[in-house]
Amino acid sequence: xxALLAGIQNATSVEPLLAIxxxxxxxxxxxxxxxxxxxxxxxxxxxxxxxxxxxxxxxxLIGIYKGGTFGGSISAILLNVPGSPEATATAFDGYxxxxxxxxxxxxxxxxxxxxxxxxxxDLLLYLVAAPFSKIALKFxxxxxxxxxxxxxxxxxxxxxxxxxxxxxACAFGVLCAMVGLDPMSASPRMTFGFVxxxxxxxxxxxxxxxLGLAEVMVAAERAYARRRGGTTHSAEPISATSGxxxxxxxxxxxxxxxxxxxxxxxxxxxxxxxxxxLAAFVGYGTAQKYSKTPEEFGSGILDGVAGxxxxxxxxxxxxxxxxxxxxxxxxxxxxxxxxxFLVHGIEPGPHVFRSEPALIYGIFTILFLANFVNLxxxxxxxxxxxxxxxxPEYVSYSIIGLTCMTGVFASTNxxxxxxxxxxxxxxxxxxxxxxxxxxxxLIGFVLAPEFEVSFRSFLLVAQGDPLGFLIHRPIAMLFCVMxxxxxxxxxxxxxxxxxxxxxxxxxxxxK
Amino acid sequence: xxxxxxxxxxxxxxAGAALWFLPDHVRGQNALFGMNGTLLxxxxxxxxxxxxxxxxxxxxxxxxxxxxxxxxxxxxxxxLTRATGYGFFLVTSVAGLFTFFLPWIGYFPTATALVVxxxxxxxxxxxxxxxxxxxxxxxxxxCGLRYGLGxxxxxxxxxxxxxx
Lengths: 511, 164
Known about the structure:
The complex is a heterodimer. Chain A has 22 helices and two strands. In chain A, helix 4 runs antiparallel to helix 14. Chain A has one domain (2-498). In chain A, strand 1 (180-181) and strand 2 (188-189) form a beta hairpin. Chain A is mainly α. By secondary structure, chain B is mostly helical. Chain B has two domains: 3-75; 82-148, no CATH class. Chain B has seven helices and no strands. Chain B has helices at 3-21, 39-65, 67-75, 82-105, 107-121, 127-148, 159-163. The N and C termini of chain B lie far apart (52 Å). Classes of the chains: A mainly alpha, B mainly alpha. At the A-B interface, helix 8, strand 2, helix 9, helix 17 and helix 18 of A face helix 1, helix 2, helix 3, helix 4 and helix 5 of B.
C-alpha cells in the first residue's frame, strides 16, 4: 500500500505531469503527420530524456506512445491518409464520415474510443501484471531461454510478408547484438579493431537510422517520382470542426463495440510481434461482425471508427504486460522503451516488481494519467493538428533528418555513432524495400543479450544434459513445445498462403 | 530472376562469407562459459544463410510451376527505379557530408546546409522559404539542446583546425 501511494505521489508531481503533456502533444503531432509514427518519435526523442529522472523520462515516452496511437486517426479521418499504420482501419469509416460533413463526430469518436480502450487496457494491465510477475519470478535460465526463443519465433513468423525473411531479420538483429564484449568471458567479438564497438552497437543510432533517416530516403524517393510525373495526389483536407459534435448518447450507444475491441487490443498487445495494426483490423472486423447493420461499414459509420480505435489504443496497455513482467518487448515502441529504461537503470522484468514497486505503481499511474491528458490535448488541439497534417512533406522530412543527425550526435557526442546511424539507415531502407521486418530485427537485437546469457547459464546448470534438465522444468518445457508448435504453424500458414496465392493452372484448359 | 530472388541470393552469399570469416573476429577460447562465444553469431549467420537459400529455392520452384505463377512473381516483385537510387544517394551523401564536416566547420553551417539540401531534395522549391525554415529549425534545435539540456556543440568553424 505504501508503494502504491508513493508511486501515485511520484507520478502526480509537476515534472512527470508536464512530461506527459509534452509527450502526448508531440505524440499526437507525430502520429498525425503521415509517415511519421510514435515509434519514430520515441527513437528521436529518447536522447532528450537522458537528463531527466527515470519516472519523468518514462512519463514523456509513454505520453508520446499514447498520443501517437491516437494521432494517426486525425489524418486518416480528415485526409484518408492514415498517419500511422494502425489507423488504416479508422480511415475506412472515418473519411466517409468526414465527407458526409461529420468530421467532428468522427474525430471525437476516435478520441473517446481511444481513451476508453486505453483505460480498459491499463486496468487489465494493473490486474494481470502483479500476479503474472510472481509467476515470472520463478523463471530461471531455462525458462527465460525458451520464453525468449518463443518470442523470437512468434515475432519473426508474424511480422512481414514472409516467414523466411522475418526470421532472417530476427537472426540479423541477434547477430548485430553480438558485437562487442562477450557477456560471460569479456573477450571481444566482431569489433574489427574499433574500440568504439567494445560496448556493442548502440540501440539509439540504429533505431533512429532505421526508423527516421530511412523514412527520409523514402520521402526523397517519392519526391523524385512526383517530379518525374508519377504523382500521387492526396485528398483535400477537411476541416476538423465541420459538422455537429458527438453527443454522450451517441458515444455510449457504442459501448459494446468499445469493450469488445479493448479486450481484443489488450490480448493482441500482450502477444509479442503482432502489433496495433492487426488489432485495429480485428477490432474493426469484429465490430462489423456483431453489428446490426454490417452492410453500412465502410460507408461512414461511427461503430467502425470506435472498433478500430479502441482496439489499437488498447494495444499500448497490453504491450506493457510482457514488457514489465518478463522484459520482453512486443513491438518497436516497447523495444525502444526498454532501451531507455536500461539507460535510466530500470531493468524491466519480474524483479522490478519486488525491488522497485513504487516505480512500477508510478508507471501504472502515468499510463492512466496519460489517457486523460490525451483526451484533453485531443479535444483542445484537434483544430490545430488538422492544420499540421497539411504541412508540406519536404518541411517535415527535412526537419526529421536534422533531428536524427543532431539527436544522435548530442546523445552520444560521437561521430562514430553518426556513421553507424547512416549505415543502419541504408540497411533499414533496403530491409523495408525487400520485406525484411524491422520489428523482427529490433526485437532480435534487444532480446539477444538476455537470450545469450540465459542460454549459456542454462547449458552450464544443465551440466551436459540439457534435455534431462528440461524435463524437470515444466514451464521451460511448455515454452519449448509452444516454440515447436509456433514453427510448425508458421510453416503451415506460409504454405497455405502460397497455395492460396497460386493462380489456377487449370484456367487455360477450362476455355 | 526477380529482384527479390537476387536480394535473397546476395543475403545468402554475404551470410556465407561472414560465416567463413567469423572465427577470425571472435577472440579467446571461451567454451568454459557454457558454449563458445562464436556459437550464437554463427547460428544466426547460418540461419540467415539457410533461410535465404530456402526463400530463393521455394520462390524459383513456385515461379517455374506455371506461366501464371511466373507473371505473378514479376508483378509482385520489388521495383527498383531511379527514384530509389536518388532517395538512397541523396540522404546517405548529405548525412555523410554532415558527419564529415561537423568537426571542421561547426554545427550551424553544416546543419543549415543539411536542411536546405534535404528540402530541395524532397520537393521544396521556394529558396527564400527554404532558407528561413532551415535557419529557424537549426536555431530552435540548437537553443533546445544548449539551453534546455545544457549540451555544448561546436557552433562555428574551427579556424585553428582548418588552418592545419
